[in-house]
Amino acid sequence: MRGPQTAVNMPYMGRATVGEPHRESRSASLGLTLAAMLFAVSMTFIDQTIVAIAAPEITDELSLSSSGMQWVVNAYLLSLAAFFALGGRLSDLYGHRRVMLLGTVVFVVSSALCGFVPGDGYAQAWLVGFRATQGLGAALMFPAALAVVVAVFPVQRRGSALALFFGLSGGLTAVGPILGGWLTTWTWRAIFWVNVPVAVIAIVLTLLARIRDEPRRESLDVTGAVLAAGGMGLSVLGLMQASAWGWSSAATWACILGGLALLTVFVRFELRTERRPLIRLEVFRDRAFVADNLVLFFAMTAFVPVFFFASVYAQVCLSASPNEAGIYMLVFFAGFGVASQLGGRILDTRGAKPAMLLGTALGAVGFALWAHRATELSLNDQWPYLVLSGAGIGFLLAPASTDAVNRAISASYGEVTGITQTVRNYAAAVGLAVLGTVLTHVTTERVLDTFEARGLSGTQAGKAARGVAESITGQGDESRPAGGGPVASLLRETAGAVRMDFAEATQVVLACMAGALTLAFVCAFLHPGGRVTDRVGGDAEERSGRSAGKPSD
């Protein structure tokens, strides 16, 4: 019979077994597992930004409308947000490795089919449909891959492992525009086909790592899954389409409020169901778990939108090419990558709270200083603040995410990663919708003042200003030209002033991001502090010993 301290004393795995591999072999297995999961999730991060770069070529070749192309981009994100919670629960029920492989196959087959879209009247429906199944594949793959890493690495090393996981995979989001620009010079279809070799490598490494699945004999809460997917999908749809439909549109609020109503019904159902719920909501009784998710929510309203806003800013205000705009974002990730590793070490030694306080404070200061310098149209004047902003996010992302997962109930890692990733995706949708509206509104006001100062009449200036703002930000339903004749002439004359107008609008957006990080800083104080110990995660540790380095069933 095992002694009570076995799980605590084993530095890498759980209990020893006859013929257990040496420490070097176990370390190699852990490294192989981490590499496999990184290859898998890299596709999901790259695909969040790579398609936007090829949008003009796709639109031209397939004769899509601007709104049609927007649906191609949004279908992926919408499906991803709707099915994350389901994906996490399925990985707990059927095994993290098995669901990760299933999600990878669904994702890569959908990617390949997106690349083979026919150039006829079915092109838009084809692309939107397979982008949606791509999102479903990612929703199955990501929580399962993250749960594999959590289950395999013992709690004492989990922070460093997930810091590498989030640091590398997050940095790949910035690589998307660069890779997309390069592939598009050959054919835009290659932005989808590039996922095929990456997926093959991920599958091969996963099989070589010999990760052991431990499925659970529990039923799936189908009603809860439908309510969660419907609520998330509807509300995120309303947020995504708010710029096109308008915030005063009945359709916008019908989706947002309808989705929130479904989520309310979902919560009530989960609390009352006698069967195993999709999400055990008692995890929210843990003050640390709530604090982790609040920090993630406010931080992600800035982190994900910054890719879009900074890329457009670089192209409009700094006259950068799409590839150069990607390099501009790599400056942000210079700080992010280094800080994410340091944040993981802080988590392992001191717990999540110090890392979250440091990260949110640095992020708030970094975005505020970046906002202050946004009207100085030179990277040389801005790069220290991009690095500081990225470092702030890097310090907090892995600790907040890892600490939340460490508090999983009965080691339901897939379920809890599904919750945290749903929070992150919902925050991203809120940030893009709200900050996108702010950017368009302020740009319109600034450009309107510029046009009126040059003698254009109020009505004509207003129409032209809205056209310019929506064309730059992509927030309208269609990309409307600003007009011809005197308006076109005026645009040529005022190009420099319009660039500054947009810089001032971006300045407001960056200031809002600083405000979001300030709220995250306040939420970090709610965390009780301390590290997750073996007493909290002891059962998890015992399971982690049987999760890697052995053949799968």
Would you mind describing this structure in some detail?
With 553 residues, the protein is mainly alpha-helical. The protein has 20 helices and no strands. It has helices spanning 6-9, 23-47, 50-62, 66-94, 96-115, 123-152, 155-184, 190-193, 195-209, 222-245, 250-272, 287-317, 322-350, 352-373, 379-406, 413-453, 458-473, 486-493, 495-524, 534-544. Helix 4 runs antiparallel to helix 10. The longest helix is centred in the last third of the chain and has 41 residues, at 413-453.
Low-confidence stretches: 1-25, 478-485, 534-553
User: How many β-strand runs?
Assistant: 0
Broad shape: globular
**Strand share of the residues?**
under 5%
Relative helix content:
over 70%
Q: State the secondary-structure class.
A: mainly alpha
| Major sheet attributes | none
Quick structural gist:
The protein has 553 residues and is an all-alpha fold. It has 20 helices and no strands.
Tell me the layout of helices and strands.
Elements: H1 6-9, H2 23-47, H3 50-62, H4 66-94, H5 96-115, H6 123-152, H7 155-184, H8 190-193, H9 195-209, H10 222-245, H11 250-272, H12 287-317, H13 322-350, H14 352-373, H15 379-406, H16 413-453, H17 458-473, H18 486-493, H19 495-524, H20 534-544
